[in-house]
Every structure is written in C-alpha cells, then in structure tokens.
Amino acid sequence: MKPPVQIGLLITALGLLAAGCRKADPSAGASAPPPPPVTVNQPVLRDVVEWDEYQGRLDSVATVEVRARVSGYLQSVNFKDGAEVRQGDLLFVIDPRPYQAELDRAEAELLEARTRFELASNDLARAQRLLRAKAISEEETDSRAKAEREAAAVIQSAAASVEMARLNLDYTRLTAPISGRIGRKLMTEGNLVNGNQGDATLLATIVSLDPIYCYFDADERSILKYQQLARAGKEESLGGGKDACEIELDNESGFPHKGMLDFVDNRADAATGTLRVRGVFANPDRVLQPGFFARVRVPGSARYAALLVPDQAIGTDQGQKFVFIVDTQDAAQYVPVQLGPLIDGLRIVRQGLHTNDWVVVNGLMSIRPGAKISPSRSAAAGVAATP
C-alpha cells in the first residue's frame, strides 16, 4: 500500500495533465467578437446649385468729402460725430457777415446800373424825337444808343455779381449732400477754414449705408465658367443685374444677406488673372458697414439633381475618396467616389453611389472591406428613414 503523500502527489499531477489537455483543445477556444455596430442611411436626392465662394469687402455706394467752399471763421458745428444725417441737414456754418455785406454791395450796384440804364433809355428816346425834327445830328443819336447798350451790359454784369455774392452767402451754410453716416468733425468752431479751389479745408466725410456694395475678385477659371453658362443659356450674363449674390459677415452663417451682381470690370488684372466683380445689397438695419470683410458666394452651376451624403461618411485612402456601403449579407463594401462641394452639411457625390445604397455614416474606423457589420438604419438629413 502506497503512502498517503504519494497518493496526493499523483492526484495533483493527473489534475494538471487534464487542465493542459483542455487548453490545447481547439474546440474549446474563445468566441469571435460580434460585428461592430454602425449607422447607415441612403443618399439624399436633391435639386442643388453649386456656389462659388470668395472673400469680399464692403464699400459705400456714395462717399462725399464735405469741404469749405468759402473762406472764413467756422461759426458752428451742427451734428454729433458718427451720427446718421439726411440729405439737406445743416452741418457747418461759416461766419456769413462778410458775404452778407458783399451781397448788399452787389445789389446796390445792380440798382445803380438799372437807374443808369433808365437814364440812357430816356436820353435815346429824346434824341430820336429830335432827330426826326432835324434838331440833332445822327452822330449824337448813335452815341446815345451806344450809351443805352452799355448801360444794359452793366446791368448784366451787376446781376452776375449779385448771383455770385448770393452763392457765396449760401456756401456759408454747409448741408449734407447725401444721406448716410457722417464721421467725426475735422475742424471745430473758431478755426479759420479755406475755401479756395484745390486747397479747400476738409471738414468731414459722409458715407451712404443703404444700399451697400460688396467688391470681390473672381479667378480666371471661374470667369470662363460663368461665360460658358451664359452662352449655354443656363444663367444670366454676369453683372447684368439679375445674377444672385449672397454674403455673410464674420459672425454670421448661412449667407443671410441676399443681393444681385450689378457690375463686372471691363478687363482682367494681368498680374493676378482676376476680374473685379460687384454686388449690391439692401442694408435697412445697417448691419453691413463700409470696410467690413465678407464671404461672398455666387451660383457656379445651373440647378440639377444630385446625390448627397453626410460629410463624415467620406473616407480618404492615399488621396482616393471612398465610402463603405452595406451589401445584402450585412458586409461592408469599399466604394471609391468622386465628390463635389459641401451643401448644408452634406457632400455632393458625383460618381460611385446610387439612390438605393446604404452608406455607413458612423463607425468607419472600426470596419474593414468585406467585414461583417451590424447596421442601424437611420434617416439622412432632410429625408425620412426607409423601413
């Protein structure tokens, strides 16, 4: 009979041998991981217009420099810096007293000239009566006729002086030539301003606000594309006042400001190959300010039916764009695609997809071509889910 210790060792050895056999059994291996869950939906079929985007700058339709037209001391300033003014509002007053005195003098000279004309007319009438009575010579009559014509010319000269004096007096009151926003006053009361032509004192500037322009430069390839669309009759001639144009500011999205293209420059810049284009926009709420930068977009294609998928569904493989679609066996299939621009968060797919394909939109990093997946069908943006 074997000792108890030897029996215990034998039992332990048999147990280890049995455990080793179980680990070596292939049929007892760990279970395979489940197919990764992914979200899939079908492409959206939508009528779209492709837009070309540019960087633009806003500018006023009208900009006016308010300058003195007569010399004198600035008597008053009648606006607040940065205020909106209307056409005809009084802005500055230059001391009018010297110009009022000049007008009074010119009017007195005109009255004197008219009196002399009346006297010359009376002298001519008497001379003509005496000539008929043979009591005066023809030479004397001609002299009095010339004196009357001279007096008439003096009246015209005096009247012109009165008109000039009246204009100068009017120029002492500077009014807003346009409606818009005025800048700061560049001269204050009590300063002497110069009204001489070519050296007139600048007093302020005014810019119009509604409507407002947006200028941008279109590249040569885009210009040729627009011209081709116009020739094909798919779009109005660029700059003809009927082309849509939209802008958004730096803190905006969705291009909320709608306008029209109304001007295209008559030649391209030879250095850059671009053409200056202008859009005009209504600005009733004064959000758009001259000098602001804006993102501009104009239609770059005619309207057509396109397939769109969420942008996150697009993968990149060494420069090749692709998507995964689900086949009838719930396996992921690699499909190369050709893409267009992004519209409302969805990417246009020009080639590679069909409307009945189910495209993987989430979980791309967890799947491989041909691998089994667990798709969860959902609705794409703007469409209902397909049962």
Characterize this entry briefly.
The chain is α+β, with helices and mostly antiparallel strands and 387 residues long. It has helices at 4-24, 97-132, 138-171, 220-231, and strands at residues 37-41, 44-48, 51-60, 63-67, 72-77, 84-85, 90-94, 173-175, 180-182, 192-193, 202-207, 212-219, 243-248, 257-264, 274-281, 293-299, 304-310, 315-317, 320-326, 332-336, 338-343, 346-351, 359-362, 374-377. The strands form six sheets. Strands 3-12-15-14-13-16 form a six-stranded antiparallel beta barrel.
| The CATH top-level class label of the domain at 51-61 and 209-299 | Mainly Beta
Rg (CA only): 45 Å
Task: Supply the helix-strand structural class.
Answer: alpha+beta
- The order of strands across the largest sheet is 3-12-15-14-13-16
CATH H-level homologous superfamily name of the domain at 51-61 and 209-299: Efflux pump adaptor protein, beta barrel domain
SSE arrangement, N to C: HEEEEEEEHHEEEEEHEEEEEEEEEEEE
Q: Would you report the number of β strands?
A: 24
**Binned strand content:** 25-35%
CATH architecture type of the domain at 51-61 and 209-299: Beta Barrel
Can you summarize the main beta sheet? 6 strands, antiparallel, barrel
What is the CA-CA span between the terminal residues?
Answer: 77 Å
Uncertain segments: 381-387
Note the total helix count: 4
Q: What is the third-level CATH name, the topology of the domain at 51-61 and 209-299?
A: Elongation Factor Tu (Ef-tu), domain 3
- The geometry reads as elongated
- Whole-number mean pLDDT: 83
State the helical fraction: 25-40%
